[in-house]
Amino acid sequence: MIWRLAASAARLLPPEAAHIAAVRTLQANIGPRPDVPSLPVSLAGLDLANPLGVAAGFDKNAACYKGAMGLGFGHVEVGTITPLAQPGNPKPRVFRLPQDAAVINRYGFNSLGMEVAAANLARIRDYAGILGVNVGANKTSANPTEDYRVAVARLACFADYVTLNISSPNTPGLRDLQTSEHLASLLEAARTGMQEAGVARPIFLKIAPDLEQADLELIVDHCVSAGVDGIIATNTTISRPDSLRDRHAMQNGGLSGQPLFNMATDVLARIAQLGKGRIAIIGVGGVAHGWQAYAKILVGADLVQLYSGLALDGPLIASRILHELAALLQKDGVRTVAAVRGTIPDAKAAITHAFRCAQTD
């Protein structure tokens, strides 16, 4: 009850203030410690206690990942971390859309920089989960690709995996790195950074939902040929569905939460079909219930991440989703996530099945 009240109280704060308060609370290791079902999964050489994780954007400076793992998440992805500190975009830059169960943000990679993140990562090593480090380019960088090499070289030693974020809509020109002209050099820079770090870690690439089929085909082909270990689908969207009702709906920035769910799941399904088991897939976008996580697994996700759901629903969301997911697996007569992964490759069919399954007793 106390954590539900705390979540309700946080919603009375401006959204960025609520975000800062949540990070500081988890940094102090204050929060529920729920029992969650064991749903082990493996991908890219990593073994996780369950498939649910926190997406990048919540713990921007690697300050509270241990506390977040204590909420029941199997992994936490910190960042996006840039080589140099930068303030991000002017405030206000994040907006709740309560009528739409959504958030719009234009943070713009506000980061204390990789040295502060490295100090935090070096200090906190006794955590129980898988840690991802998400890196990006500085807004004013003359050579964004070089920024990825530098950040990977500095931070990879602390990570269980590294994600290259080339899909934020809030850094001018960043999404251009998803094109064939830049993607190969970006991936080579990341490999070079990994060699400089003297470690071998899985490399993931985070993509936008606002991509055409030809773009997705190119990205998958490049990732497979370059030995990239996984694709995270997807980041926030710059589109604005006609269904949006909230007064903040036309704010500039990336839209996340419930309106992103169908779009992101469709892109995820297409990536999974193009990948044909050759590359790991992490599904993100609009997950706030167990059936939504289940739908992403059904179309081919190895892991599922959320961020807006944590911001909107509070710290008990991991426990609730994992218990719901375990119940859905039981209803379908299976015991493991691997047993159902990719079994309904069509996004609409997977969403329909997961939702109907959740409605039955």
Q: What is the tally of helical segments?
A: 12
Sheet with the most strands, sense and barrel status: 8 strands, parallel, barrel
CATH topology: TIM Barrel
> What Rg do the Cα atoms give?
19 Å
Arrangement of strands in the largest sheet? 3-4-7-8-9-10-12-13
CATH level-four homologous superfamily name: Aldolase class I
Decide which structural class fits the backbone: alpha/beta
The tally of structural domains comes to 1
Strand content: 15-25%
Q: Ends: how far apart?
A: 25 Å
H/E topology pattern: HHEEEHEEEHEHEHEHEEHEHEHHH
Fraction of helical residues: 25-40%
Given as residue ranges, the uncertain stretches (5+ residues, pLDDT < 50) are none
Mean of all residue-level pLDDT scores: 91
| Principal-axes shape call | globular
CATH C-level category = Alpha Beta
The CATH architecture: Alpha-Beta Barrel
Count every beta strand, where a strand is a DSSP E run of 2 or more residues: 13
SSE map:
Layout: H1 2-10, H2 15-27, E1 41-43, E2 46-48, E3 52-54, H3 65-69, E4 75-81, E5 94-97, E6 102-105, H4 114-123, E7 130-135, H5 144-155, E8 161-165, H6 180-197, E9 203-207, H7 213-226, E10 230-233, E11 254-257, H8 261-275, E12 280-284, H9 290-299, E13 303-306, H10 308-313, H11 317-331, H12 347-359
Parallel strand pairs: 3-4, 3-13, 4-7, 7-8, 8-9, 9-10, 10-12, 12-13
Antiparallel strand pairs: 1-2, 5-6, 6-11
